[in-house]
Amino acid sequence: MNKKTVVALLIIITILLNAYLNLRYDSDLFAFINDDQRLSKSEKHWLDNHGSFIYSSDYNSPPLRYIDENSQYQGVIVDYMSALSINLETKMKFKPEATWNGAYENVKSGKADYIDMIESPKRNLRFNFSKPIYKLRGAAAFKKGKSELTNVLDLKNKTIAVQRSDYAVEFLMTNVKGADIVQTNNMSEALIKLKNGEVDAVVGDEPVIKYIAARLSIENGISFSEKPLYEENVVLAVAKSQKEMISILNKSITELDKKNTMQKIQEKWFGAYSLSKNEKQEKMISIFLSSISILILLSYIFYSWNRQLKNEVKIRTKQLNLSRNSLIETLDGFTDYLVVIDNNGKVILANRSFGKKFGKAKEYLIGKNYNELINFPCWDYAMGMIKDTFENGNGLFKEYKCNGSVYSINTFPIREGSENIERVLTVIKDITKIKVSEKMLLHEDKMVAIGQLAAAVAHEIRNPLGIIRNYAYIIKTNDENLETTQRSIAAIESSVKRASGIIDNLLNFSRLCPNTVIKTNMKQFIQSIFNLYTKPMQNKGIQCSVICSENSECFVNQESLKHIMTNLISNSIDAIEQNGMIDVKCMTYNEKVVIEISDTGSGIKEENIESAFNPFFTTKEPGKGTGLGLYIVYNEVKKCSGEVNVYSTYGKGTTFKVSLPLETRELRGNTKSIEGESIDQ
């Protein structure tokens, strides 16, 4: 919908609403919206100073105004004035008069505040008028059997009785030429004149004429004009000097209009109130205009909402396309091989790297069954992992050797608004160079450790060699004492065994173990690592203890555990300046093997704990540390699917807690590729 159409619709709706409000409340749209019915401070102040309102009118116009048999002032208008008083929260006094003209003079002279009347140009010179409070029909009554009156023109040259000062006087003087107007004190007097034949007709308020005619028992002898002579709004007339009163009355009248107070009062007095033809037309027009306005408004709202929804769909679709294209471009930028498989085994997305590795454009792969990708490296294993992910709902990670290279395979389940897995994202990465770099790094770390141990090992070997040389000299110079010779030979054998043990420990440490799990006696393994550090620990006066069951045997990756333990024990030794303690506890529970290495060294500052496992981070002096020890520990633990945590109090000591999952022989090395075996993390 363009702007011109919207503006045109708004103008039409405004006109219709304005027409309805004008008919219903005698107000335009702008005034209705901005009409604040609350009294201002100045109006409240004026009302407090003014006191009670005084309403004056005649008491001979039933059912509008009259005094009943109990001498109570009653009637439709009297009830409305009471409702007005309640709404304004002020007292209302009534000043009824025998004639309407007397009440008229009361307001004109200031003895009363207001009177209800039909507005006219002549009256407008003396009074200010409120908003309309009700409509009043004027009718002409005549004797039955006389010539019928159909409209106002039939009153020409007639003698007509009218209540003195009534609006009908002005109406007849303006609209009927040649009429002889006889003014009476009240409507009863006018109807008696009609009954006696003194006048041709009586003109006045229709409900008053009918009510008094019934009370005089002459209702069957008179008829009424077919159409009302007039139908005008009745307002409250206030002296020109009382401007504040008009504003206050108008606000209260508006509130009563919105509550349909007058209609309820009329229903009380007349039952189902009979609307005039004009009122019926206005009512129908109001209903029609209201219906049209609501229909147009609802149509416009629905149309606008529908159009807005369409625009939102277009915008969202465009955003989704842009997002999808951006995602595809991002995926194409990865060197890893990415492919998405749906639950029917169809390829729905592949990045450029995957297509290039496969030897086809990525568009060629879309829609293919994943069985057709068998030429892709390690795809046999990837297919099995994809199937397991669909069945189990969990992402998987494996490393495999294929065609002389090492590949990591990750699967990620994709759920779209349901618990069922709709798709699986598979990421394959060539990690051959990474593995080579890791091995080089570990080898270098081991060589550094060996270099650090070389001096201590040399010293350890020199001691038994000195013993061997001394006892060899004794044997050489002692030809007769057999006991001395045998004791010397035993000492030589013990020293050789000791030197051989030292060399075996060093060889065991430097030997590359296969990257698989091996059944290992944990206490013996940990003790063998400590044996390598005997001399450095003796030099610093460091004691050690290994708390572990003698028969504690677990399937562990010895190569990884070797790097973990040597780096942690080496760190503990470096952290202790002199005379300290290193405790190692090993236990198994919840299908895990947990190793705690505690020392009484200098500890780690709190701000450095989070950085402890970062590569090249070290607090040691230059030349005494590479910053890779704990980084290697972290990586080796993660490679074994374990966890490592550090707890330290600066100046008191540090504890490293390593937790590794317990394995069985069957969990490792069973999955074979075409050329080699799987590499588990």
Question: Topology of this protein?
Answer:
Layout: H1 3-25, H2 29-34, H3 41-50, E1 53-58, E2 60-61, E3 65-67, E4 73-74, H4 76-88, E5 92-97, H5 100-109, E6 114-118, H6 121-124, E7 127-129, E8 134-143, E9 159-163, H7 167-175, E10 180-184, H8 187-195, E11 201-205, H9 206-215, E12 222-224, E13 230-239, H10 243-258, H11 261-270, H12 277-333, E14 337-342, E15 347-350, H13 352-358, H14 362-365, H15 379-392, E16 396-402, E17 405-415, E18 421-430, H16 432-477, H17 482-510, E19 517-521, H18 522-532, H19 534-540, E20 543-547, E21 553-557, H20 558-575, E22 581-589, E23 592-599, H21 606-609, H22 629-639, E24 643-649, E25 653-661, E26 678-679
Parallel strand pairs: 1-5, 9-10, 9-11, 20-22
Antiparallel strand pairs: 2-3, 3-4, 6-13, 7-13, 8-11, 8-12, 8-13, 14-15, 14-18, 16-17, 16-26, 17-18, 19-21, 22-23, 23-25, 24-25
